[in-house]
């Protein structure tokens, strides 16, 4: 019986309504008093809940010798009642969608950890962009080559170039930044190097599509992608403003 009670609760019936329904089903015909004794639920509560089950079409009422009783004509009415609710919900879905469209959109945030997370995050920068798009990148390269295998980095560059996705990079001065700069043309990259002493940032930010990825290479890879047109626009405009004034 407990399994059936759980099932009824899973489709939206309260514990008390579930007990009342099953008591009527088991008794065949039952008065308010019969149901109360069978379930241990107070008669006043049974009296108040029975009309709700009748409104759902799953319990019927009859009378004999001036005594009112309740019965279940066919347990399959449970499914019929659910089908009717689903139909009403489907008819109302356009109204829910319309309501959602007028509410402020919330950013979608996804977290990534470890080398596996790094692969997923950087893969997203490629799958989210179209050929000819440009990724904007604040590249803190101090710990980059310590945590990201060279093979992975080279493979990412090959995929990006094959898809014709360009990248603009602002990076603190470092041997790796200088090495990247030498290969700018063939790797569809344009890098501007800033003094490492004045701008020693070690994290990374990728600005692309309608997303901003924030990445830390300190000790272990940790990243987050924020998908929001408003946040993306702010970071893109800030990057472009800085880019304009850098040599």
TrEMBL record:
CDD domains: HTH_ARSR. Residues 8-73 form the Transcription regulator TrmB N-terminal domain. It holds the Pfam family TrmB. InterPro entries: ArsR-like_HTH (IPR011991), TrmB-like (IPR051797), Tscrpt_reg_TrmB_N (IPR002831), WH-like_DNA-bd_sf (IPR036388), WH_DNA-bd_sf (IPR036390). This is Transcriptional regulator, TrmB. It comes from Candidatus Wolfebacteria bacterium GW2011_GWE2_44_13. The lineage of its organism: Bacteria, Candidatus Wolfeibacteriota.
